[in-house]
Design a protein that fits this description.
Elements lengths: L2 E5 L7 H9 L5 H22 L12 E6 L4 E6 L6 H23 L5 H5 L13 E9 L8 E5 L4 E6 L6 E8 L9 H11 L7 E14 L5 E11 L16 H11 L8 E7 L5 E7 L13 E5 L2 E4 L14 E5 L16 H24 L1 H21 L1 H7 L5 E2 L5 E2 L1 H8 L10 E6 L6 H9 L4 E3 L5 H11 L3 E5 L5 H4 L12 H15 L4 E6 L8 E4 L2 H11 L5 H4 L5 E6 L3 H8 L3 H18 L5 H14 L1
Parallel strand pairs: 2-8, 12-14, 17-18, 17-19, 20-22
Antiparallel strand pairs: 1-6, 2-3, 3-7, 4-5, 4-7, 5-6, 8-9, 10-11, 11-14, 12-13, 15-16, 21-22
Keywords: ATP-binding, Chaperone, Cytoplasm, Nucleotide-binding, Stress response
Family: Belongs to the heat shock protein 90 family.
Protein name: Chaperone protein HtpG
Length: 628
C-alpha cells in the first residue's frame, strides 16, 4: 500500500496562520475558490476528450457541494480529471508552496495583503481559512491510475496514502474549525453559492429541492400535483452574455435584468459587449431609469471572470460615470488575485475602460441619430448620465457634444450647436459674447424668467444636482459663451447691450434713494446699488453674484469648495431708478412712509427669491394688509 509522509518545503512553520490572517476579512471566498477549481477540473476532461486525449466516458459534468453538520465537514466534489499522487505532490505541495515561500518573503513590506496573495497561486489554501484539516480524495482519468488521499492539518506536514474514490474526479473535504461553524448551514452556503456561482459554466448541485408536477386528475376533473425531490442546481450555465446577440430577443435581456435586479423598473435600453481582440470581454450593460435624485447606485455592475463572480466594485475597469449603469462584464484578461477581488493597475484594464466608453457613446449617438423623438423622451432619465460622462471623461465629451441636449423653460430640446444658433441674434452682448441664461428652480425664479422673456431671451432649465459642474464645463469648452443664472443680476446687466435705458433721476436724487434703502434694510449682507432699468422691471431686485453662488452650490454638493461654503451669503439689492414707485418714494414727505415703502419693495424682492421667512414674513404680511 502506498503511504508517504512529508514536510512541505517552506522556510517557515506558520504559513497558514498568515494566510488565515490576511484572508480572514473575506473568508467566504474559500467556497468560490474551491468550486472554481472543481469547475476547471471538469472542463479539462471535456477538453481532453475533444482533443482525442481521453477516450473514456466523459459523462454529465457536475460539481456538488454538500455538508454534514454532525461530522462538521463541507465537501466539494467533481467528476473532472482527478489527480495522481505525483500530481498532488506537484500541484498542492510544490507549486502552491513555492508561491507561499515567495509570499512569505514579500508580505512583510506589502501595503495590501489582498493584492499580493493573488500572485502566488494560493487559491486552494483559502480552505484553511475555515478548516483545521483538509483532505483530498481523488482518482485520475489516466489509464491504470490508483486513487490517492492527501491530508494536511494546516501545519506544513502532509500525508499521502491510498484513496477510496472509485470514480474519476476529486473530493475536497474540509473539517471545519470551531470559529467557522456558521458555514455548516444550508442557507449560509446557498447564499454564498448564489453570490459567486450563479452563472458558472458547469452545473453546481447543492442538495435537493421540492418541486410540484402534474399527477392526473381528481374525481372532479381538477388537476392534481405531487411533490417530487429534484437536484437543487443553483446556476444558469449559459447566461445571456455568453450568447450571440443574434440569438437573443428583447424579452431575454429584460428577463436577465429582472434576475439580476428583482425589484428594479425595466431598463431604458442596453448594450451587448463582445470583443476578442486586443483583449477578451463579454457582457451586457443596462441603462437604468435615473431621474434627478443622483443616487450613485454604484456596485450595480457585476464583474465576472469566466463566469465566476469576482466583485461588484468595478471602479478600476469602468469609467466613473459608467458606474451609474447596471449589468455584467466578464473578462478572463483582467488580472485577479486569490481573493479575486482586487484589480491591479494593468494595461488591459485601461484598454477595456476605453472600449466600454466608446461603445456607450456609439450606442447613444446611434439612438439620437436614428430616433431623435424617442431619445428626447428618454432624456429625463439619461441626461444626468450623459452630463456626468461629459464632465469626467474627455474621450466621452468628444462624441457626446453632438447628442447632449439642453432643455429650455418651454420644454424644447436643443443640441449645443442648435442652441448657439437659436440665441445668436438676441443673446449676444456688446462684446460679442453669447450669454446663455438658465434657471435651477422655475417656480422660485419665475419673475426673473418672465423678465428675460419680455426681452425675447430664452432660459434653459438646469436643475439636476450635477448641472453646476456641467455649466462650468460648458464654459471651458464653448468659445465666447458664458452661462448666467437668470436671477444672478437684473436682466439688463446679465446681457449688457449698448441701448441701456436713460437715467430719469439726478445724481442727488440717486444718493437720496440709496440712503433711504440702506436705512430701511439695515443689513450689512445686502449691498444697495441704483440702476437705470426699463420701467417695466421690478422696483427692487435681490441677486447673488453668479460666481459666488456657483462656488457655494458646489460646496453644498461636496465639490471641494468648502471654503466658500463657510463664507456668509452676500446679496446685491438693485433699485430700479426708472420705476414709478421710486419716484413716489422721493415725492413722499413723511420719512416714516418713505422707509415703509422702501421696506415693502425690498421684502417683495426677498419674497420672489424665497428669502423672506419667519418673523420678517409675518411682519411683511401685516404691513401689506395695512397698506391695502
Amino acid at each position: 500500500m502506498m503511504q508517504e509522509k512529508g514536510t512541505i518545503s517552506i522556510h517557515t512553520e506558520n504559513i497558514f496562520p498568515i494566510i488565515k490572517k490576511f484572508l480572514y476579512s473575506d473568508n467566504e471566498i474559500f467556497l468560490r475558490e474551491l468550486v472554481s477549481n472543481a469547475v476547471d477540473a471538469t472542463q479539462k476532461i471535456k477538453r481532453l476528450a475533444s482533443l482525442g486525449q481521453f477516450g473514456g466516458e466523459v459523462g454529465q459534468p457536475q460539481v456538488e457541494v454538500s455538508f454534514d453538520k454532525d461530522a462538521k465537514t463541507i465537501t466539494i466534489s467533481d467528476n473532472g480529471i482527478g489527480m495522481t499522487a505525483d500530481e498532488i505532490k506537484k500541484y498542492i505541495n510544490q507549486i502552491a508552496f513555492s508561491g507561499a515561500t515567495e509570499f512569505m518573503e514579500k508580505f512583510k513590506e506589502a501595503n495590501d495583503a489582498n493584492e499580493i496573495i493573488g500572485r502566488f497561486g494560493l487559491g486552494f489554501y483559502s480552505a484553511f481559512m475555515v478548516a483545521d484539516q483538509v483532505e483530498i480524495q481523488t482518482l485520475s482519468y489516466q489509464d491504470g491510475a490508483e486513487p490517492a488521499r492527501w491530508i494536511c492539518d494546516g501545519s506544513t506536514e502532509f500525508e499521502i496514502t491510498e484513496g477510496t474514490r472509485a470514480a474519476r474526479g476529486t473530493d475536497v473535504i474540509l473539517h471545519v474549525n470551531a470559529e467557522s461553524e456558521e458555514f455548516l448551514d444550508k442557507f449560509k452556503l446557498q447564499g454564498i453559492l448564489d453570490k459567486y456561482a450563479k452563472f458558472l459554466p458547469v452545473p453546481i448541485k447543492f442538495g435537493t429541492k421540492t418541486e410540484y408536477e402534474a399527477d392526473g386528475e381528481d374525481a372532479d376533473g381538477k388537476e392534481k400535483t405531487k411533490e417530487v425531490e429534484v437536484d437543487n442546481i443553483i446556476n444558469d450555465t449559459n447566461p445571456i452574455w455568453t450568447k450571440a446577440p443574434s440569438e437573443l430577443k428583447d424579452e431575454d435581456y429584460l428577463n436577465f435584468y429582472k434576475e439580476l435586479y428583482p425589484f428594479s423598473e425595466d431598463p431604458l435600453f442596453w448594450i451587448h459587449l463582445n470583443v476578442d481582440y486586443p483583449f477578451n470581454l463579454t457582457g451586457v450593460l443596462y441603462f437604468p431609469k435615473l431621474k434627478n435624485d443622483f443616487e450613485f447606485q454604484k456596485n450595480k455592475i457585476k464583474l465576472f471572470s469566466r463566469q465566476v463572480f469576482i466583485t461588484d466594485e468595478v471602479k478600476d475597469i469602468v469609467p466613473e460615470f459608467l458606474m451609474l449603469l447596471h449589468g455584467v462584464i466578464d473578462s478572463p484578461d483582467i488580472p485577479l488575485n486569490v481573493s479575486r477581488s482586487f484589480l491591479q493597475a494593468d494595461s488591459n484594464v485601461k484598454k477595456i475602460n476605453t472600449y466600454i466608453t466608446k461603445k456607450v457613446a456609439d450606442k447613444l449617438g446611434e439612438l439620437f441619430k436614428n430616433d431623435r423623438a424617442g431619445y428626447e423622451e428618454k432624456w429625463g432619465d439619461i441626461g444626468m448620465f450623459v452630463k456626468y460622462g461629459i464632465i469626467s471623461e474627455e474621450k466621452f465629451y468628444d462624441k457626446a457634444k453632438d447628442f447632449v441636449l439642453l432643455t429650455n423653460a418651454d420644454k424644447k430640446n436643443f443640441t449645443l450647436n442648435e442652441y448657439k444658433d437659436q440665441v445668436a441674434a438676441t443673446q449676444t452682448d456688446k462684446d460679442g459674447q453669447q450669454v446663455w441664461l438658465y434657471t435651477n428652480n422655475r417656480d422660485k425664479q419665475d419673475a426673473y424668467i418672465q423678465s428675460a422673456n419680455r426681452k425675447a431671451y430664452d432660459v434653459l432649465v438646469m436643475d439636476s444636482p450635477i448641472d453646476n459642474h456641467f455649466i462650468s464645463h460648458l464654459e471651458q469648452k464653448l468659445e465666447k459663451t458664458s452661462l448666467k443664472r437668470v436671477d444672478a443680476d437684473v436682466i439688463d446687466k446679465l446681457i449688457k447691450k449698448d441701448d441701456a435705458p436713460a437715467h430719469i433721476l439726478t445724481e442727488e436724487q440717486g444718493g437720496q434713494v440709496k440712503i433711504i434703502f440702506d436705512s430701511a434694510i439695515n443689513k450689512p449682507a445686502f449691498k444697495v446699488e441704483l440702476e437705470s432699468l426699463s420701467p417695466d422691471e421690478l422696483p427692487v431686485t435681490v441677486t447673488m453674484d453668479e460666481w459666488m453662488r456657483r462656488m457655494k452650490d458646489m460646496a453644498a454638493m461636496g465639490g471641494g469648495m468648502g471654503f466658500y461654503g463657510s463664507m456668509p451669503d452676500n446679496y446685491k439689492v438693485v433699485v430700479n431708478g426708472n420705476h414709478k414707485l421710486i419716484s413716489r418714494i422721493l415725492q413722499t414727505e413723511d420719512e416714516g412712509e418713505k422707509s415703509r415703502l422702501a421696506k415693502q419693495a425690498f421684502d417683495l424682492a426677498l419674497l420672489s427669491q424665497g428669502l423672506l421667512t419667519g418673523s420678517e414674513l409675518t411682519e411683511f404680511v401685516n404691513r401689506s394688509v395695512e397698506m391695502i
